[in-house]
């Protein structure tokens, strides 16, 4: 750190966008001409791996540099507690910071916006004041017990119903133009001598798909969004089938949503160039996770750790990174260190913050050179302790996933409506972890069979291999075992749910608020 470099950072998350639908990654439809232009001066990473397949834990990892097991943000405990964020470190160092998002999970309630000087969420699961004060304390109380209980489940159902209503077609107008406008206003009004950090999450490619008419006519001509399956739980539960023609229509709507985000992002890029701020700004564009459209007989981004979900797009523009295709294995949580490095901040001024590590910065020539780290983190130790082929250590990214409670509720509801009984070994109930290397990958789960793949020979993950069948798969399993040891052991025993009442210790105000909402008699 300390070299000449841009003063500002713009970090953009294209929520739920898979890389093979983007023009810079070779997609044959012109969904992202603005990103294709960005790619002319940015590194385009082929093997960027998300630490989880859904929003909350991934953003928490990007904001802390920690794996999900370390920061603990999950739907069963849906908040980031006691961990200083990237924004906290940058604000303490004098940077203006802002977070503008249309994602339901990036709100003050989850504490992912902690540390940002300015923030606005354009779409929340529930109104912000509903998950503040007494109700927030009640949620934490019931979720901080050893096991999920009935009161927590009732609260989840309220959130699920509100989410479904707010995400319906009639209320699903794009918030992206407003997010872009607010980001521009923040940059215009920034007065910090140090610089600014702007974080943006764009939500259009998340179900349901209701793209603007212009993009819809280009990528899904004649398709009425109301005529296709917009509820992934109907398909995943077995209550609804989707034929090839409908999948094509769904993918067309998805592409249209991506094109809309790209066009809006282009507005911001053009303005930064016009105002001579482009060269002074590090630009990071990624997805938090991808999406499945029938691959592996799944729809959406729950219940699996397949490549379409965790191998995400990542483009980084910075003078220290060569433009062009980059095959190096990278982890999305390393964007925490990359941003610190870009702004020459070590986070030491914020007690409890993850210290800057050059071996986890994409800007550093020490990136992934974990041998020189004095106090390796859990992922670094899992890599360092491995036995690589021909004396070379294999490198791995690690992914963690526990059942998403709200999504699971939706799935069970759709199954029940169709008089379908989900078996106990349904993958929706499974917890999973994966070690993902350059060639080998291994996924361990508690309720479904483990899966192993040779990604170099089988990039579509069609044929699962055991560790006995392939050495690269075996090496990935060993790496996963080392990571599991670091985080407290493998998930091998199925998690249990409980109907115990955990509100005995709740104060009177909390109980009164829950009675008003209909959760207590």
How would you portray this structure in words?
With 521 residues, this protein is of the alpha/beta class. The protein is built from 16 helices and 14 strands. It has helices at 33-39, 55-64, 68-71, 86-92, 133-143, 150-166, 176-189, 213-219, 232-236, 244-274, 307-310, 335-342, 378-384, 405-417, 471-486, 508-516; strands at residues 8-14, 43-49, 96-101, 118-121, 196-202, 281-286, 292-293, 299-300, 311-317, 324-331, 396-401, 432-437, 440-445, 451-454. The strands form 3 sheets. It has an 8-stranded mixed beta sheet, with helices on both faces. Helix 5 (133-143) packs across helix 16 (508-516). The longest helix is centred in the middle third of the chain and has 31 residues, at 244-274. The radius of gyration is 22 Å and the shape is globular. It starts with 7 loop residues before the first strand and ends in a 5-residue tail after the last helix.
List the helices and strands and how they pair.
Blueprint: E1 8-14, H1 33-39, E2 43-49, H2 55-64, H3 68-71, H4 86-92, E3 96-101, E4 118-121, H5 133-143, H6 150-166, H7 176-189, E5 196-202, H8 213-219, H9 232-236, H10 244-274, E6 281-286, E7 292-293, E8 299-300, H11 307-310, E9 311-317, E10 324-331, H12 335-342, H13 378-384, E11 396-401, H14 405-417, E12 432-437, E13 440-445, E14 451-454, H15 471-486, H16 508-516
Parallel strand pairs: 1-5, 1-6, 2-10, 3-4, 3-5
Antiparallel strand pairs: 2-9, 6-9, 7-8, 11-12, 12-13, 13-14
Helix pairs in contact: 5-16, 6-14, 7-10, 8-10, 13-15
Biased composition (Basic and acidic residues): 472-485, 508-521
InterPro entries: Alkaline_phosphatase_core_sf, Sulfatase, Sulfatase_N
Protein name: Sulfatase
